[in-house]
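Quick one: structure for this chain?
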Amino acid sequence: MPAPSHCDLLIRGARVVSVHTGELTAADVAITGDLIRALLRPGTPIDAARVIDADGLLVAPGYIDAHMHIESSLLAPREFARITLPRGTTTVLADPHEIVNVAGRAAMAWMIEQGRTAQQSMHWAVPSCVPALEGFETAGAVLGADDIAEMLDWEGVTTLGEVMDYRAVVDGGRRMREIVAAARAKGVRLDGHCPNLSGDDLGEYLWAGIDSDHTKNSPEVAVEKARLGMLLMLQEKCLTPELVSSLAALPVLPDFCLVTDDLAADAIVGRGHLDHIARVAVGAGMDPLTALRALTLHPARRLGLDDRGVVAPGRRADLVLLRDLADFTPVMVVCGGEQVEESAPAELSGNPFADSVHLDPLAADDHAWTVDLPDGEHVFRALRVNPVDTFTEPAEVVLPVRDGVVRWEGRTAVLTVLERHHRSGRRATAPVVGFDLSDGAAATTYAHDSHNLTVIATTSAALREAANRVIGSHGGICVIAADQEPVHLPLPVAGVLSDRPADEVSRGAAAIRDALHRWGWAHRNAFMSISTMTLPVSPQVKLTDLGLVRVADRAWEPAVLT
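Got it. Here's what it folds into:
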């Protein structure tokens, strides 16, 4: 059959990257509508409405993010798409479990609606863990198996979101058993979250039908999971030289995906999105073509998107034009057959979740750490943070108690979680060790996954000021530190998203990150570190509004050891 005589868009003079064979082949790419019409011999005559001169460039498939949370960018969906699409991310599978933990089904419906007009393809996962750990924290909503079964039928929904309560799955907990059964009955894929789960426990998790994991594992456990056919989704913190070499040493390199999981606006604007993750992977020793397959072909297969992930006739014209495979930053992006152009910020279509922080401002006398203990010195369970990842190890701090009040100032930093959804007045406090902090505090309502108001402080005055600034803005992040001006980023959409343009949010997020570092919170990803202090499915010990949780055992940790 002769070559087509006309097309809507012709990319001329490029070399096409085959993610199937790794070859680079000179070809002109003809596009009709939103599909690739043909790969033509260079210079083949064809009538094209538009021509892109791509001499010397590579044409590769658009990048696909198989596991991410839009809320982590702190941006509404259309604004998120506006800044990630030019970086080559043409498709995402978004799990909105942050905002759904605040506002339930309505929040997910709103996210889907907000994303409908984005040029980027947005597919959706129904959050499986609202709350993340039933009975151990207070969220703003609860989703049961019936809710999830109904939401899995919504337009654009394809997946059960990461099953974080992995201990309940392994131990046969009724709630998670029913949720997993509802998803399997719908025939959707089930995404996992099971850090370092191994041996018989991993077998039980796989038996339940959950066949992916995006969490950080030791190289040995990652290989064990790959050996059993569990799809590894590797985010930035997973991409160590040790892991990359362990996978490369296997007789057959397993399929895996590169994913972003959680990237804030300043990280996206400053470093990139999936293109940045690919550069990290290559820097850790991964072959560039292997990284490209993990951005394109493998996630397309995972998501059941057979219409994309490869440059071939009949496939969706989601393409990136690259100078070479040493740097994954696109020179140009084509999405659905349309060249991606710089666009103005997307206006937010209403904010039905503007009043979601149900807390009164803290007064000078209503936030003391009170305990039912006799006067004297007592040993308290503390959380030890580290500068690398979100693991928090158990530690001990000796503090005096006088008249039922813990005298902590000048002796330790503390973490306080205040329930903000139901006006219960409930709060919990524990010491935090590991960083040398000056006088100050950091308060946030962006705190995985129940998003209660979370404050880390070294003085009660700073604790109160940071908390009250966040309460006053109906959610957000605030850092108060000695010899610094207060830094405050409002997040008025359910306390987890901004209603402002990406550039403004990026500057605010960068200022928060810088203020945290200058305060002494010396973590390579300070946002994730403070926002996961309350995540009771992230090892080892976490604090919720109900108390300390021993994650691996899915049990309560005693707050006082004497």
